[in-house]
Amino acid sequence: MKIFNRLATISVASAIVAGTVFGSAQPTYASGGGQASNQNDEVSYMGNTKNPKNVIFLVGDGMGPSYNSAYRYFADNPETKEMDKTAFDDYLVGNQRTNPDDHKENVTDSAAGATAFSSGHKTYNGAIGVDGNKKDTKTVLEQAKENGKSTGLVSTAELTDATPAAYAAHVDDRDKKDEIAKQFYNDKINGQHKVDVLLGGGAEYFGKENGNLTNKFKKDGYDIVKNKSQMQNSNSKQILGLFADNDMPLQIDAPKQNPKLVDMTDTAVNKLKQNDKGFFLMVEGASIDKSGHPNDVTGVMSEMQGFEKAFDHAMQYAKENPDTLVVATADHSTGGLSIAKGKDYVWNPDAIHSMKHSGSYMTKQIASGKDAAKVIKDGYGFDIKQNQIDKINKEAKKLKDLDEDDKKYEDQLQKLQDAVQKPINDKSNTGWTTNGHTGEDVNTYAFGPGSERFRGNIDNTDNAKNIFDFFKNDQSS
Ligand SMILES: [Zn+2]
C-alpha cells in the first residue's frame, strides 16, 4: 500500500503499471487518489466515469509504438542522466487493435482505421464512413452535432484525406475527394453544416473546379483563412482554413506564416468552447504517416514533435476544464520503424537534430531539377561523402528519364528518396522494413472524464462506441 500510494501520486501511468504488477484493484486507488486530492491531482480523473461534455480526439496517423519510443529518445534532454518523459508518457492507458474487415488485407489503411474511430464499424480498406456493404455509418461527429454541440476537424493533410473525411463524409472510396469536400458543404444536420471548424490542407478540392465550395462556406458565415495570422484574427465561430493546395508542408520545412498543428488546435478549441453544449474535435497529425511511408526519419521526428505540442495543448485545456476528455492514439504503424539497425546497440537522434530539412523536401527539390549537391548541403547538418552524392545524381537522372505518368515513376522517386536519406538513416542508425503500413497494436493515451473506458487492450472501434455512449448520456445538451 505504501508503494502504491507513492506511485499513485507520481503519475497516472505509473499507477496503472503498479496495478498490473501488484495485482491491486485499480478502481480502489484510482478513486482513493481522487478523494484525497484536489482537482489538479491527475490521478483523480482516472476513476472518473462521468460523461465528458467535450471530447478532443487526437490521431497520430501512422504513430506506432516505436514512433512514441523513438520520439522519447529524440526529445530527451542530453544534459540529464535519465531519459525524460514525453508529454504522452504519463497518460498511457493501454493499446488498441487496428485490423480492418477486408477480404484481401488484414493490415489497415487510414480510411478503415478512421471509420472504426468515427463510427465504431470495422470496414474494408479505402472505405470512408461506410461499412462492408457500403452503407453509411453514423459518426460521433454527427452525433455531437445532433446533440447541439460544436464540431471541428483539424489535419496537417488535405481535409478530404481519409482521417478527417471519415468523420463527416460517406463514400465507398477514399480517392473520391471532390465528393468528400462537397459532402462537407452539402450534408446538414438540423439545418446546419456538420463541421464548424475545418483547418488543414486540400484547397484544391474547395475551389472553382469543385463547385466554389470556399465561396459557398463564406456566404454561410464561415471565415475563410489562408495563413496563420488570418486564422488567429478570425472572429467567426465557424471557419474554413486551407493552408496548402494539398498536404501541408512538414513543420521542419514550412514557411513561418504557416500555422503549426498546435496553432490550429488552439484556434479550433477557442472557437468550439464558446458553445455551452460542448464540442467534439478531431485533430490529426497526418504527416507522421506521410513521412513514415518514404522512410523519412527526419520528417517523422518533425511531425511527432508537432503532434506532441498539439496533444500537450489539448491536455492543458482538459486540466483547466474537467468536463473535457482527451484521447490520443494512432490508426496503425507505418514503415516498420526500428530504433537501431545492424549490429550496434545505438540509436543516434543527435544526427536527426542536426538536419535542416526532411528527406521528402530534399527529394522534391532534386526531382524538380535543383542541383543535388546544393540541396544536400542545405538540407543536411553534416558532411555527405561524394560517392553518396554521385548515387543521388544517378537516381535523379533515372527519374528524369521517366514520364510522371509512367508506372515506374513512383518506384524511382522512392529510390531517389532512399539515396537522399541513406546518410541520415545510417548516421542515426534507423531501420525500416516497408514503405507501407504494419499491423501492430498502437498506444492509447487518455485523460479526463470517461478516460477509464479506454484502458487495457481495446479495439479501434471502441473509441467510437465509448464516445457514442458519452453523447447518449449527455446532460449538457
Ligand atoms: Zn499511410
UniProtKB/TrEMBL annotation:
Its cofactor is Mg(2+); Zn(2+). Residues 1-30 form the signal peptide. Residues 382-422 form a coiled coil. SMART domains: alkPPc. Binds 1 Mg(2+) ion. Binds 2 Zn(2+) ions. One of its GO terms (molecular function) is metal ion binding. Pfam families: Alk_phosphatase. Zn(2+) binds at D61, D289, H293, D331, H332, H437. Residues 426-437 have a biased composition (Polar residues). InterPro entries: Alkaline_phosphatase, Alkaline_phosphatase_AS, Alkaline_phosphatase_core_sf. Mg(2+) binds at D61, D161, T163, E284. Keywords: Coiled coil, Hydrolase, Magnesium, Metal-binding, Phosphoprotein, Signal, Zinc. The active site is at S110. Belongs to the alkaline phosphatase family. PANTHER family: ALKALINE PHOSPHATASE (PTHR11596:SF5). This is Alkaline phosphatase.
